[in-house]
Structure formats: C-alpha cells, structure tokens
Amino acid sequence: MYDVAERSGVSIATVSRVYRTPDSVRAQTRERVLEAARQLGYVPSGNARGLASRTTGVLGLCFPDMADPDAEADAEADSDADDAVMLYSDQIIRGMERAARRHGYALLIAASMEDGPESVVAKVAGRVDGFAVLARTVPTEDLEVISRRLPVVMIAGPREIDHLDHIVVANADGERELARHLIEDHGLRRLAFVGGEVESPDAEARFLGFRQACRDAGLPVPDAPDLRAEMMTQAEGARAAEALLDRAGERPEGMLFANDQMAVGALRALERRGVRVPEDIAVTGFDGIPLSRIVQPPLTTVRQPIRRLGEQAVELLVQRLGNSGAEPVSLMLPVSLIRRASCGCG
Amino acid sequence: MYDVAERSGVSIATVSRVYRTPDSVRAQTRERVLEAARQLGYVPSGNARGLASRTTGVLGLCFPDMADPDAEADAEADSDADDAVMLYSDQIIRGMERAARRHGYALLIAASMEDGPESVVAKVAGRVDGFAVLARTVPTEDLEVISRRLPVVMIAGPREIDHLDHIVVANADGERELARHLIEDHGLRRLAFVGGEVESPDAEARFLGFRQACRDAGLPVPDAPDLRAEMMTQAEGARAAEALLDRAGERPEGMLFANDQMAVGALRALERRGVRVPEDIAVTGFDGIPLSRIVQPPLTTVRQPIRRLGEQAVELLVQRLGNSGAEPVSLMLPVSLIRRASCGCG
DNA sequence: ATCTAGGGTGAATGCGCTTTCAGAAGAGGG
DNA sequence: CCCTCTTCTGAAAGCGCATTCACCCTAGAT
What's the mean pLDDT in B80-101? Predict the structure, then answer.
C-alpha cells in the first residue's frame, strides 16, 4: 500500500480511501492510484483491514468432524451415492453460503478436530464477525467464553447457554403429526417407537412428540422408547425391527423410527422376514433423506428444512450484528409430513 | 490480550507464547495465563495474528454465482431434488474442505458477484494463504495481479495465466474413449456430436476427444460439432435431438452430448418422437450426474472426479505454500467411462 | 480583491498480535 | 562464593490498513 501511495504520488490515506470510499477521492486521483495498484500487483490485506476496522465481513460455521456417519457409511457401500448425496453439513453450508452472499459476507467453514488448546473454534472465532455451531461440535465452556465476544448461533442443539441464539427444527411437532396420522388416518393402535441414544436431543424430541400423539389419542403413553439404537444406522434399524418382531405378545401395527436410516434398515429386515409393508406393518422415519424416496416401499417420513436452518442462522447473525442488545432468539423451524407408501398412503 | 497479560501478571509476549509455543512457557505460568484468559473471555484476534505473522491458516475458494444453472433449473422443477443433489460447487467445496482439514487449514468460500472494484476476489484474496478459482469466475486480469502475490490454482479452466497451477479433468480422453466404445464395441458409424458454446473449454475439449476417436477409427473427422447449444440444459438438449432427427439425410446412429443435462433432455425428446434408445439410436452424455443413473434408459456417460478436483486443488496450494519457487503444475485428472443402457450396454 | 465554504488530501495514531533481542532468574561447577 | 550456562520472560518494533483531525486549495460570494 505504501508502494502504491508512493508510485501514484499520494499518501496511504488516499489509497485507503480509493478502496473504502471511492467517491471521496477525485476521479483523476483515483484512476492514478488504481493504475499504480495494478502495476504493482497490490492486494489489500484483509487482515490489516480487519484489524483496523474491527470487522471482517466473514461469517463462520463449525461442524462436527463426522457430520453424518450414516451417510458416510452409505457412501462406502455405494460410491455413486457418495458424489450424489448431500450430507447434513453440505446442506447447512449451502444454506449459509447463499444467505451470507446475499448480505455481502463470505463464509469460513471448519470441521472440529481435537487439536491444541481451543482448537478449531479459536481459528474460526478470531477471524469472523459471528458464527454458527452445529450441535455437539464445540465444548460448551469454550462457547460460553467466545459467545461473550461475538454473536454465536447454535444450530439443532439444546440451549445450553442461555444468551445464545439458537435454531432447531420442530422435531416433536413433526413426530406427533406423523403418529397422529398413523393413528387417526390409518387406524393403527399398537405403535412401537425406536429411538436413539439419550444424548441425542433430536431423537429425544421426536420421542416426546410420539408420546404427545399417544396421549392425544388416548392410547397408553410409554415412558421410554420401545428400543434405543446407539448409532441410528441402517444396521441398527434392521436389528431393532427384528427384535420388535421377535418380542413376545402382539406384533405392533406400526414402527416409528427416530430417523430415516434406521427405517430403511428396518424395511430391508422386514422384507427378509417376509413381513409386508405396509399391509402387515407400517414403517416411518424422520429427516427426509434422498434415500427415503427411492426405497421400496417409499418411506413415509418428516422432512427437515436443513438448508433453511443454515439460512436462518445467517439471518440471526446478521440481525445480531446490527443490534447486539436484542434478546436472545430461539427459532423453531416447521417440518413437513411426507406421506408415502410405507404407512399405507399413496 | 493486554488485559490477560495484566491479570496474570506477565507481559503480552508471554501470553502470545502460551498460544503459539506453549512449551516455551513454564507450566505454572501457562496455567495462570490460561485461567486469566478464561475469566476474561479472551478470544485471540485472527486478524492481528495474521497481520503479524503474515499467514492466515485459511485457504479460499471462489466459484461462480451460478455454478450450475442446470442443476438449479432441475431443483425448481423438483423441490425434492433440490435438497438431494449436490451441485458442482458443493462437491468441490466438500473435496477442498476435507483436504484442507487434513492439512490444518480452514476454508473460506465466496461466490462471485458483481460488486465494487475487485469485488469478491479481493475479499478472499486478502484473507487467505492461497486459493482456488473455478473457471470463468474471476476476470483474468484480476487473477493475473493477485497470483503474483499468493498461490492460486485454477480449477477446470484453461491455462490463461501461465504461472498458475491448474487442474482439469481429462475431458478429451473421456470423450474419445466414449466414442471409441460406440464405434468399436457397438459398431456405430454415423455419430453426431452436440457441443456447447465456444467459450466453454470443457465442451470444446470433449469435442476434441470426439474428433480424435473419429480419426482413430478412420471415420470422417468433423471440423465443428454438428450442433452447439448455448446453455447446455435439458431443454436445449431436447431441441438439439429433434433438430438432428429432422435433418436431411441419414439419421445418425448415435448422438453424443457434451454433458448429461443435454443428453437427458434428448432422451425425453426421443421418447416423445417414438425413437427407441438404444435400439434406434444411442445416446451418451458427460459428467456422471446423479440424474444420469435414474433416467430411462440409464445414461452411458463419463464420470468426472469432481470432489478430487477440490482435494487436488488444496494439495497443490499446500505444496506451493511450502515451495513457492517450483514450476507451475498442470494436473489432468482421469475420468471413467460408465457404460449403461443408453448406448446398448447392460 | 477578500472572505467563506467545502471538497480533497496528508500526518499521525492505533488496531492486537508475533518476534527478535536482551536481560533476569535459577542451576550447577569450580 | 563467584562464574557460566540454561530457561524464562519483558521491551519494543513493526505487520498493513482505517480513521480522525487539521490543513490546503479552489470556487463562489461579497
């Protein structure tokens, strides 16, 4: 910059103005400066600019190293799918990128890994005006510290820190609506719910929705899922389905899985056992992954607006950057029931 | 940082060392500093660090605003596909992110848009240690200037600037192999090639491959594609297919399209016309997009390793950051022929 | 010809951190 | 008890830019 200033016969202040507030510089001077910059191959330092102006024009995203183990597993099984199917994190990224672009921000993305002290977050946090975090990516205490200095929004996670903005999808509402549909529209009564690990807030919320539907319909309200899967993968889903079949007592009329992966696994297990879906038993999932459309029968499920999650995160960040004093916001994005053949529809 | 230093009774130099070279500080002192940092909610400024150390730990990617108009169009037609299908840019991002992560870098992404002077590139270029550019994203002259200051790798574009590293896929080889397959294995002779706009280096390279195959087989070598599509979309592909059918003279035995989108459009047009594929005519595409697997008949095509493009880009950047004096590298990634029903295979 | 605005420009300061370069504080050795 | 050798730590000088604040010049007004 000093070179540019010297070469064009002005001070560095003027060079700075040429880039920041072009109108405040006489056109002729401006041209001289730009020409000099071109000749010298001048590239303004974002770092210096950021330091001086205390703002970066960049938003960030931290996501878990293994954002979607199921999809990874799928990918290995079918290398075609690998290139075709978007992971959860891909969709978030796409959503955030679009929204950030609209607001004139660039997006810095980094997957968490164990590193030195503070690790990834530190890297991101120090270089952005604000950032989003996917659930269970960053230690709560780190977030606590960082969120005191800049806007942070938690995506799809519990509200561990009360002054954080956060966004979730309507897991409970979706599952409730799904169960209601099975009960009221298809007349099913004996429903089994297959949940996930206790620490998964999503899976738990979905189970809660299931309970509500049972209560609403006057059916017995279970205290806990009929089964819990550790990994929520297809393999676990298949195992769960078989376990439910082999259980003493009457066979359930419907199996609700906490996610699509498990439901798909169940579909395959049931087929092996010669159990017809949906004639003998209804099966449902949650998420609306691409695979749910392709399996036979197509899976009734609940679609999450994952991309909108990312978009909304950016909106919240931008809002907070404009008005840091506002009350913490807590958004819940609506989901939509997708009725397909696996429950008896279509 | 000054506050942390004061609170823990050391100088800022020591605080800096705690983060940069923890081992050079006595354990006891280190703990005191970290504790103070925690209490104060200290977040190191990436900008300042970058300024002082002249390195950011971030790699960048600039991609076109409309990375893939075809996919966009698809998405509108089928909102399901929108969430499911990865765009070209999504795959590049995924590849780069993975590779960057391995090397300890974060990734800054920004789509180009018309803005002030220098626009997006300036934003990215000033904040990264090096970056990748998708073809036709950044004006050549800007690239020329920037690439004098930091490593830049051009992805899937022509080598406009000779000192730039660049990566392309083996477009010509792939198309050549594809055409060879049609000619030798299926015994076809009258082949028509539908290309893209002249400015599309990919489409041109593919046509070149087609010519080579013709030459190899002793068939007449065309000077130009039988047709050129402006947009390379399904609609254009359909139109092209019909135009070829309606042409005077013998009907071609095979139609080779410069990408899958057009081929898919052609498939549909041919079906409407009652022309059977592959019995009456063979059809092929290029890219290996997800859709190519699903259409009827499944499309014979050439798959590009898009994700690897991103990974390789990062590898090149990292290499050059380690050794900036090296000769410019020019990589060509191999592609793979996918034989499906539309050419008569399977 | 003198005065008054204002637009243009320059000097100087500081953003928060890294990095020599020295100096201080212990640790042994003589 | 003094001297030398390590370890640690502090002082200070930037890194490249944004931003007052003050100043200068040119018009238009008087």
Answer: 80
Nearest to B43 among A42, A83, A126 (CB): A126
Which structure tokens are listed for A258? Answer: 């906490």
* CATH classification of the domain holding B25: 1.10.260.40
A180 and A299 together in one domain: yes
In order along its 346 residues, chain A shows pLDDT tens digits of 888 888 888 889 898 998 888 888 888 888 888 888 888 888 899 999 999 999 999 999 999 876 444 455 544 444 444 456 778 888 999 999 999 999 999 999 998 876 544 577 888 999 999 999 998 888 888 888 899 889 999 999 888 888 899 999 999 999 999 999 999 999 999 999 999 988 888 999 999 999 999 999 999 999 999 999 998 889 999 999 999 999 989 999 999 999 999 999 999 999 999 999 999 999 999 999 888 888 889 999 999 999 999 999 999 999 999 887 788 999 999 999 999 999 999 7
CA separation for the pair A297, A320 (Å, rounded): 45
* Nearest by Cα to B182 from B296, B346, B339: B339
B94 and B193 within one domain: no
Q: Once rounded to an integer, what is the mean pLDDT over residues B203-212?
A: 96
Does B123 contact A106 at a Cβ distance shorter than 8 Å?
yes
- Chain A residue with minimum CA distance to B303: A80
Element (H, E) at A77: helix A69-77
Residue A115 belongs to domain with CATH number: 3.40.50.2300
Q: CA of A42 and C1' of D9: distance in angstroms?
A: 38
**Co-location of A197 and A253 in the same domain:** yes
Quick check: A107 and B106 CB within 8 A? Answer: no
Q: Which letter, b or e, does each residue of B212-230 get, where b requires 16 or more Cβ atoms within 10 Å of its Cβ?
A: bbbeebebeeeeebbbbbe
Determine the distance from the C-alpha atom of residue B156 to the mean position of all C-alpha atoms in its chain, rounded to a whole number: 6
Whether residue A220 sits in one domain with residue A272? yes
Tokens for A228, please give them.
Answer: 């819990």
Structural domain contains residue A51: no
On the 0-12 / 13-18 / 19+ scale of CB atoms within 10 A, B322 is exposed
Residues with CB under 7 A from strand C: A 9-14, 17, 23-26, 29, 48, 51-52, 54; B 1-2, 12-13, 16-17, 19-20, 42, 44-45, 48-49, 51-53
pLDDT for the residue numbered B241: 96
> Measured between alpha carbons, how far is B329 from B332 in angstroms, rounded to an integer?
10
| CA atoms of A325 and B246, how far apart (whole Å) | 68
Q: What pLDDT does residue B138 have?
A: 86
Could you give the count of Cα atoms lying within 13 Å of B60 in the half-sphere of its Cβ? Answer: 27
Residues belonging to chain B: 346
How many structural domains does chain B have?
Answer: 3
Note the CA–C1' distance, B53 to C19, in angstroms: 9
Greatest pairwise CA separation for chain B in angstroms: 91
Which residues of chain A lie closer than 8 angstroms to B150, CB-CB?
Answer: 43
Report the residue of chain B nearest A307, measured CA to CA: B83
Tell me: cis bond preceding B278? Omega within 30 of 0 counts: yes
Q: What are phi and psi of B89, to 5 degrees?
A: -65, -35
| Same domain flag for A70 and A164 | yes
What residue of B is the nearest CA neighbor of A36?
Answer: B145
Q: Which residue has the tokens 């690239």?
A: B143
Q: Alpha-carbon distance B137 to B119, whole Å?
A: 11
Which of A57, A90, A127 shows the shortest C-beta gap to B123? A57
Q: How far is the CA of B187 from the C1' of D2 (A)?
A: 99
Show the domain range for B33: 2-44
